[in-house]
Amino acid sequence: MSTPVADIINDYIFYEIAALLVLAAAVGFLGLLARQPLIVSFIAVGVLAGPSALGIAQSDEYIDLLAELGIAILLFLVGLKLDLKLVRMLGTVALLTGLGQVAFTTVFGFLIGLALGLGVTTSVYVAVALTFSSTIIIVKLLSDKREIDSLHGRIALGFLIVQDLVVVLAMIMLSAIGVGTAGDGAVADVLMVFVYGAGMLVLVGLFIRYLANPLVDRLSRAPELLVSFSIGWAVLLAAVGHYLGFGKELGGLLAGVSLASTPFREAIAARLASLRDFLLLFFFIALGAALDLSALGASVFAAAIFSLFVLIGNPLIVLAIMGAMGYRKRTGFLAGLTVAQISEFSLIFMAMGVSIGHVQEEALGLVTLVGLITIAASTYMITYSHQLYNRLEPVLGLFERKSVGNLEDAGEVGANTYTIVIFGLGRYGLAIAQELQSHGQKVLGVDFNPVAVRHARANGFDVVFGDATDPEFLAHLPLEGARWAVSAVPEHDTGVTHDDPRKALIRSLKNLGFSGRVAVSAHSEEMAGMVRTVGADLVLRPFRDAAIQAAALVMEDVAPSNLDFTDPEGQKEFNQ
Fold it and tell me: If you compute the radius of gyration of the chain from its CA atoms, what whole number of angstroms results?
C-alpha cells in the first residue's frame, strides 16, 4: 500500500528511519499501557510499516544491516552473561528442569507439527523453536515484581541458562547443516567448519587467558573507548564467524564469552543494553514487514494449537519435574510460568532455517504468530502469577509429593523447638541470629536464597529453604513455642500486582494463629508506620539502632560484644 506520505518518506532514507523510530515510539507507548514487552510492539511496528499497511519500510538493505548488527550485539550480551556458576549453584533442579522442558517441548511439538500436516523438517524446526524462552522478558518481569532473587526466580534463571546452552548447540548444528547443503564436497565443508570453529575456540581461550583482563582493564580508563571496543569486538568475531561458515550469531556469542570472565562485564552489558534494544527494533521491523498478513490467515489454527501447547504444556512439565524433585507446587507453578512463551531466539532460529532453505517463509510467519500470542499472554500470566496460583491452587496438589521430604519443608530441622525464627539471612539477619544464638536462644533461619542457606548452615545454624511469602510453606514451619518471628528481609518497592513481603509475612503469621511476637526491619518512618499498622509488635530500624549503639560505645556506656560476626562478603544479594 502506498500513500503520498509514504512516497515522501521513501524519497530519502533519513526520512524513512525517522518515520520508523517515531512509529516505534508511538506503538511502544501503547504497548507499555497494555503491559506488553517491546518485542510485541516492535513486530507490530513492522507489520504497520510493511507493504500490508503503511508501506513505510522500503529500504530493506539498510534495515537488514541494522538487524544483523542487532543480532550480533544480542548474542554478544548473551555470551557476556552466560554464567555457568548459577547452573552449578542450583545444580540438579536447573539442569533437569531445563533439559526436561526442552526434551518435552521438542518431542511433543514435533508430534503436533506432524498432526497438523507441516512436514518432517518444518515440524523439527518449529518444535525446536518452541523450546526457547525469552530471558530478556522474564528477567524484566521478575525484576519489576522484585522476584528475581526469590526461590522460583533463581531456579527460572538457572534453567533459562540451560536453554541458552541448547540455543548455542542448536545454532552450531544448524550452521554445520547449512554448510552441508552446498552440494559436492559437503562433508568436507562441514568438517572444515568444525576445524575453523575449534581453531576459533582455541584463539578465544588464549585471548581469555592472556589478554582479556589486562586489555579491558586498560580500556576501562576511558569508558567510551571500552564501549567502542566491545561493539567492534562483537562485530569483528561475528564477521569472522560468518566468513568461516558457522554464522554471525555464534561469532557474536563467542565475543561475549571471551569477555565474560572480566570484572567489567556488568558495566559493558549495562552500557550496551540500550544499543541492543535499538538495533533489535530493526530486526523485528524487518520480520514484521516481511509477514504476509493474507497468508497468515491460513496459520491461525496451527498457531493457536502451538500457543496453547506452549502456554499450558511448558509450565506443566516444569511443575511436574520440580514436584518430583520435592519442590512445592507454588514454587513449581511460579517457575513454570516463566517458560510459557517463546523468545527472540525462536525467530532468529527460524530465520536461519529460511536462509538455508530448509523451511519456507510460512513457517517463520507461523512461529512469529505463536510468539506474538504467547509473549502477550504470558506477560499477564507472570504479572498476575500469585492471583492465578490462588485460583488454581486446589487442582495443583497432583504435582506435589506428599509422601517424601519436601525440599522446602521444615522436616530437616526435626522436632526441635525454636524460640526465635528469623526470616532473611543477609548481613543484618545473620548478625542478629549469631548474637541471639550466643545468648543461648534456639534460632531457626529461613531464606529463599540457596547461597544464603548454605552459608548459614556452614556456620552452624539450623536453616530451612523456602519463601516466607508462601502461606503454605509457613504452615510447615515449627512455630509452636517460638516467642519471636523476626523479619530481616530487604526493603523493596512494591507495585500494583505484588505486596510487600513483610506485610504478607505478618498477615500469614496472624492467620496461622502464631502466638508469639513479630519484629520487622524498616528503613524509613513511613515503612515503620505501615508494618505497625498491619500488626508488627516491634520495628527494627537498622541504621538508627546502629547509630544509637555506636553512640553508646563511644560514650563507653556499654561494652561492645566480643562476638566475631560472620559477614557473607562477596554475596551482593545479601546486602540490605
Answer: 27
